[in-house]
Amino acid sequence: MTVVWSSSRDGVDYEVRRAGQTLSLYANGVQHSEFHPQRLLTGSVWDLLWLPALLHEPERYRRVLVLGLGGGSLIPPLRRLLDPETLVAVEMDGCHLEVARDVFGIAERFAVQTHQGDAVSWLRDYQGPPFDLIIEDLFAASNRQVSRAVPAELDWLAVLSANLSAQGMLVMNFGDWPEYRDSALVGQYAMAGYASRFRLSCSDCHNAVIAFSREPARSIHLRRRLASLPALSGRREKARLDYHIRQLD
User: Fold this and answer.
1) What integer pLDDT is reported at residue 44 of this predicted model?
2) I need a labelling partner for 50 at 20 to 30 A (CA). Which of 20, 112, 136, 198 fits?
3) What's the distance, CA 192 to chain centroid?
4) What does DSSP assign to residue 144?
């Protein structure tokens, strides 16, 4: 890998490394984002964050919110596969936002509204219409191990849910299964207002991605839509897509 961009701010060392056409953003040695100008799939955790949207028809996601943009790995597949009318991303780390905008070129190429700020405060203060898909991926750049920056508590879930539409989908990223299993969101209280809950994982990482759906869903619907989408149904894409989905309710 070749380092093509670097910066040190507030005790965090940032690097963008290139391997072929793939650009990867690291903070204190922990990878936070990956971008390839020709590919939608990373073969890792970033695929797990948008995959749950395909449990339902892509056309229903007119307003999409990403909390924790990082370098913007999620934005190309969200734009190409869902093409929402409104795509908003909030990122507290100015260095991550700089990489997303200036190095990866995410904001301009994929028509996403980016905001720098604390995602929790931003959403608590938000007064606009609800979102059909909220992806919550909040990990601190200073963390030398992969763990959430915001505790997964019921009051935070309530804020997320209050800004989700009646047919919406909420996706949350956890550092690993025990981090979710030991959180307040594992119980039935977390299912208030939701009909289905799923866990997604892959062999490339320890992360546990949890998806909460307002409406009933089955994993077979995801598999059928993946097979029907030309951008994801080719031989190379099938080989790169690494995921396991399990219904929790």
Assistant:
1) 94
2) 20
3) 22
4) S
What span, in angstroms and rounded, lies between the C-alpha atoms of 12 and 236?
A: 36
Q: Are strands 131-136 and 196-201 parallel, antiparallel or unpaired?
A: unpaired
Confidence of residue 141 (pLDDT cuts 50, 70, 90): low
In a domain, 179, yes or no: yes
Q: pLDDT digits over 45-63, tens only?
A: 999 999 999 999 999 999 9
205: Cβ contacts below 8 Å, ≥ 6 apart: 44, 45, 146
Domain that holds residue 51: 41-247
Distance CA 222, CA 96 (A): 31
Quick check: is 87 in a domain? yes
- Please check whether residue 183 lies inside any domain of the structure: yes
How many domains does the structure of the chain reveal?
A: 1
Q: How far is residue 160's CA from residue 70's CA, in Å, rounded to a whole number? A: 19
Q: 153-209, pLDDT tens digit by residue?
A: 999 999 999 999 999 999 999 999 999 999 999 999 999 999 999 999 999 899 999
- The amino acid that residue 219 corresponds to is S
Its pTM stands at 0.96
CA distance 57 to 132: 12
User: Token match 């700089």: residue?
Assistant: 98
DSSP H/E element including 88: strand 86-91
Name the amino acid, one letter, at 130: P
The CATH number linked to 200 is 3.40.50.150
Residue 19 lies in a domain: no
User: Alpha-carbon distance 95 to 71, whole Å?
Assistant: 9
